[in-house]
């Protein structure tokens, strides 16, 4: 029988909302997708079924916040990407791309585990920026704009377009992981990929006679 919610509210325990997110995140990362029901989550958390609705609109809302918590936990394990103006411009952009690839390598299995929960993925996508922050393209665009203001990128560069090209190339690289989420194989030659991508962007593709 589930324990009363009050049992969890002790000085030594996390807040109940955070506890529910933590339990759900663990079920996702352990790929126990068959257990992602309100009853199973509540039982695993040691609370009554209805307690979830005191903190979340529905199961999909809880799953979305658990996925967000997984991303935030992954980000904390990674070194931050380079700040504008540090190192060479090539190293700066390559560092941002490597950060994107490393982050996706860590969180893609959780997204794959929720492919059978499309409403939860849609709810995650609809979380406001005040909750989940800017997306990766927005982060990259802001970094490119900052580098542009420092004079390290062309003044007529379209930062949003360049960010779309760079982040889109990363997505093309990592999306196949959705179909092999439990593989332990790392992404192949990420350094060569990022360096080649940055070099192509900075050098352009127009020929001398074009």
Q: Any overview of this molecule?
A:
The structure is a single chain. The protein has 210 residues and is mainly α. It has two domains: 14-77; 82-126 and 134-180 and 188-203, Tetracycline Repressor, domain 2, CATH 1.10.357. 58% of the residues lie in helices and 0% in strands. It contains nine helices and no strands. The chain starts with 15 loop residues before the first helix and ends in a 7-residue tail after the last helix.
The structural class is mainly alpha
Q: Ends: how far apart?
A: 74 Å
Mean pLDDT: 85
Largest sheet composition: none
CATH hierarchy, class of the largest domain: Mainly Alpha
Low-confidence stretches: 1-13
Based on the structure given, which CATH architecture of the largest domain is correct?
Orthogonal Bundle
Task: Describe the global form.
Answer: elongated
User: What would the CATH topology of the largest domain be?
Assistant: Tetracycline Repressor, domain 2
The helix content, as a percent range, equals 55-70%
Estimate the strand proportion.
under 5%
- Element pattern in H and E: HHHHHHHHH
InterPro entries: Homeodomain-like_sf, HTH-type_TetR-like_transc_reg, HTH_TetR, Tet_transcr_reg_TetR-rel_C_sf
Keywords: DNA-binding, Transcription, Transcription regulation
Organism: Spongiactinospora rosea
Protein name: TetR/AcrR family transcriptional regulator
């Amino acid at each position: 029988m589930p324990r009363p919610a009050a049992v969890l509210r002790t000085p030594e325990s996390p807040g109940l909302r955070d506890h529910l997110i933590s339990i759900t995140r663990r079920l996702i990362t352990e790929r126990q997708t068959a257990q992602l029901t309100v009853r199973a989550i509540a039982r695993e958390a040691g609370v009554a079924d209805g307690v979830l609705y005191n903190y979340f609109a529905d199961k999909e809302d809880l799953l979305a916040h658990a996925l967000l918590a997984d991303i935030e936990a992954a980000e904390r394990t990674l070194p931050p990407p380079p700040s504008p103006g540090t190192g060479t411009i090539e190293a700066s952009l390559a560092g941002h791309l490597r950060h994107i690839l490393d982050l996706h390598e860590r969180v893609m299995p959780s997204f794959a585990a929720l492919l059978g929960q499309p409403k939860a993925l849609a709810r995650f996508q609809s979380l406001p920026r005040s909750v989940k922050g800017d997306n990766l393209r927005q982060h990259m665009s802001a970094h490119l704009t900052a580098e542009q203001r420092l004079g390290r990128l062309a003044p007529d560069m379209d930062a949003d377009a360049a960010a779309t090209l760079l982040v889109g190339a990363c997505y093309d690289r990592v999306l196949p992981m959705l179909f092999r989420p439990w593989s332990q194989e790392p992404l192949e030659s990420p350094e060569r990929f990022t360096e080649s991508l940055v070099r192509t962007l900075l050098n352009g593709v127009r020929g001398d006679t074009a």
